[in-house]
Each structure stands twice: as C-alpha cells, then as structure tokens.
Hints:
The chain is mainly alpha-helical. It contains 2 helices and 2 strands; from the N terminus they run H-E-E-H. The protein has a two-stranded antiparallel ribbon with strand order 1-2.
Amino acid sequence: MSTLPDDTLRKILVQIQQTAVQSQRALNISRQQSASKDRERRILQLTIDEIQSIEGDVNLYKGVGKMFMMVPRKTMDQEFKTQEKELTDDINSLNKKAKYLEKQFNDAQSQLRDIFHHSPKQ
C-alpha cells in the first residue's frame, strides 16, 4: 500500500468512508420502513380479527374519501388478505435489503480498520 501516492490513498479512503456513510443511512431508512410496514400489518391483522369475530351477515362499510360505501364481506376479506400479503412481501424485501446494507457497511468498516492497522506509523 505504501507504493501508492498519498493522493490516491486519500481518494480511496474518502470513497470507503462515503460508502460506509451511505450504507448506514440507507440501512436506517430501510429499518424505519420495515418497522412502519410491520405496524401497518399488525393493525390490519387486528382489523381482520375484529371482522372475523362478527357473526352473521353484517353490513361492512369502507371509507372512500368523505363517504362510506357498503362492501360485501367476502370482498372486504379478500382486500384485507391481499393487503396483508403485500405488506408481508414488502417487509421481507426490506429485511433482505437491510441485511445487504448491513453487510456493505460492515465491509466498509473492516476495510477502514485494515487500512489504519496496516498503515505505517508516523
């Protein structure tokens, strides 16, 4: 490493630091989005449980803008199941993305540690 000019080493160091910072920011955003989606999914599951606890053929209403529309129970169940599946898929993809970003951040940190540990003492 000492054969490289100082300017080149500085550029490499800056690039690694930028990668670490960017991946850390993206990781935090990904975790926040995952937590938000998980919260939405839990609320949706509670709503599904409440609707399933109601017996008989009850009128269900869905909010549309400033009014409510009557929706058949089967349609409402299908919509909720679809939303739940979409949220679960989103959470899984965000978790995969978070694992990748965490690995990228750890790699950048280990590169920085290696550079500083193997640099000549001045």
